[in-house]
Amino acid sequence: MEEFLQHIINGLNLGAGYALIALGYTMVYGILQMINFAHSEVYMIGAFSAFYGSRFFNLTEHPGWGSFFAALALAIVACSSLGLLIERFAYRPLRNSPKTNALITAIGVSLFLQFSGQVVFGADPKLFPSVLEDYALWTYGNVQLRLFDVTILSVACVAMLLLNFFIQRTRVGTAMRAVSFSFRSATLMGINVNTIIMVTFIVGSALAGVGSVLLGLKYSKIDPLMGTLIGLKAFVAAVLGGIGNLPGAVVGGLLMGLSEEMVVAYLSSTYRDALAFGLLIFILLVKPSGLFGQSKVEKV
Amino acid sequence: MGAWRGWILVVLVALSIATLSSFVLNAYMQQILFYIAINVMLACSLNLVMGFCGQFSLGQAGFMAVGAYVSALLSLNWSLFPEPFHYFNFPLYAIAGGLCAGVAGFLVGMPSLRLRGDYLAIVTLGFGEIIRVILLNLEVVGGARGLYGIPGTQDFGMCFHAFFWAGATVLLLWRLVHSSFGRAFLSVREDEIASECMGINTTRTKVSAFVISAFFAGAAGSIFAYTTNSLNPASFQFVKSVDVVIMVVLGGMGSISGSVVGAVLVTILPEALRPLQEYTGVDLRMVIYSLTLILLMIWRPSGLFGMKEWTQFRRPRRAA
């Protein structure tokens, strides 16, 4: 029972990370109907910018909340600008071309960032800087609730609440919802669609940046290829919750994290990666629209 | 072109390349030639799915892995023809590997081809990864250590075998997409709803394209197994599938001769870029690959050949 409780805590942490990344996938999909394969690399760049930034500003010498938020800010800025660049230079020229072309470009951007990352950062794994000191806040038998666990969950919660406020209450958020509802009518209502798409990429990438620092704290190993698997799992989480649906992405992320933790704990760790794909194929067969998505009927 | 003329051409090309390879070229060049044959098969078979049928698949490496491991296991455990006739084993086992890959293609295609575009890409990607994870965990095939000591040679017979398969793939796919059965693929690519109205069973068409493509990918895997003599799950990673996608896109989706050219280029380019790698000290090849892919999509999405075949590039004669 104690072991189970500990796995729940770990699974929720992992799931919060997945949820943050899944939000980026689902937002872009909701607006452009396209899988942004490069999103996982945005996540990777976030972790590396926190790594090099904290080295540059000597953040590890004074671990604490100040350093933590500085690293977080660095990752957010780096990720948002990268997301902006990707949208501007890779996706916008292809806005009106067939979907397959956009998909191939997305894969190309993803590979380009991965391999440039290997050239620039080196292929060897690095240790995420300890910008915050970890200690057990609360112990019950063998169950430990550590500072990192609380930090990850609360920062993720704050980020999601901010996102919710942004989407539901601000003018730009309203415009985003309008664009995702109907591209053409939004244009007719005087919304600058290109700006809105740019904002979507910036916000989604910023969330990936938050996720990269949080997961970096907990799992500490970073390398240029780390984005691929986490990105795919986050994507599966987005599909699980119904792609295009924001609360769905959060629920999907948490479910994904919990189930992965349970598979590792009670079955075998070698199957942790197969789980995501198995789950994906299962959802697509049984309910392709996901848990909260609405199924669309194709009209001629 | 009559059927028999095509086959004679394939045999002649395979014979001449095999002669060239075993009497003129060194081992390094021979290895590249084998890779060209394998990549031509992979690219042409993927083009059937991607270019002619309009479905996006990222699982070609997975099908190749199935074919490679099946034929490797077969030849490690049985030898149907004893020593002087052992060349007859290779085509048999290649067909067996291809058939198993075809079955895998059916199992993947049947449920997932109801999906569209992006989802299909992700499912096929997932399938490729699942195959790799299973191979990593199966003790029969050596797990992460891989399979060693697969019987196979790199001599004249093997080279003929490889290029005969490559030529046969090109010829069969060419004849397929120019048949009335093959036109169904094109109509599914152009408009699924319209072709359904014309009485084409779209799901069946897509699944058959998938299975045929998987068969040839499996056969390519079998040739890969016999020329490298050892197999490792790491050879069949996602990047391998992307390589094949690059070949198809570079050559032009919907052009078989384009795929052949794309496959040859993408196989030779990394070797030609080797001096650059020695000069800079880092492996820039994949960076260049991926950048090429992005720029191609932005500036010339139709690739080198577009949807044309090489026969269509002759200038039409004008009536005077």
What can you tell me about this protein's structure?
The complex is a heterodimer of chains A (300) and B (320). With 300 residues, chain A is mainly alpha-helical. Helices cover 73% and strands 4% of the residues of chain A. Chain A has one domain: ABC transporter involved in vitamin B12 uptake, BtuC. Chain A has eleven helices and four strands. In chain A, the strands form two sheets. Chain A has a two-stranded antiparallel sheet with strand order 1-4. In chain A, a hairpin with a 2-residue loop joins strand 2 and strand 3 (143-146). With 320 residues, chain B is mainly alpha-helical. Chain B is built from 13 helices and no strands. Chain B is globular. Chain A binds chain B through residues 34-35, 90, 93-94, 97-105, 107-112, 114-116, 118-119, 228, 232, 235, 239, 270-271, 273-274, 276-278, 280-281, 284-285, 288, 298, 300, and chain B through 50, 54, 56, 58, 111-112, 115, 117-119, 121-123, 125-127, 129-130, 133-134, 136-137, 193, 238-239, 242, 245, 249, 253, 282-284, 286-287, 289-291, 293-294, 297-298, 301.
How many domains comprise the coordinates of chain B?
A: 1
Count the domains of chain A: 1
Q: How many runs of DSSP E, i.e. beta strands of chain B?
A: 0
Succession of helices and strands of chain A: HHHHEEEHHHHEHHH
Head-to-tail CA distance between termini of chain A: 55 Å
Q: Per the principal axes of the C-alpha atoms, what is the gross shape of chain B?
A: globular
Structural class of chain A: mainly alpha
Largest interface: A-B, 43 and 42 residues
CATH fold-level label of chain A = ABC transporter involved in vitamin B12 uptake, BtuC
Q: What does the largest sheet of chain A look like?
A: 2 strands, antiparallel
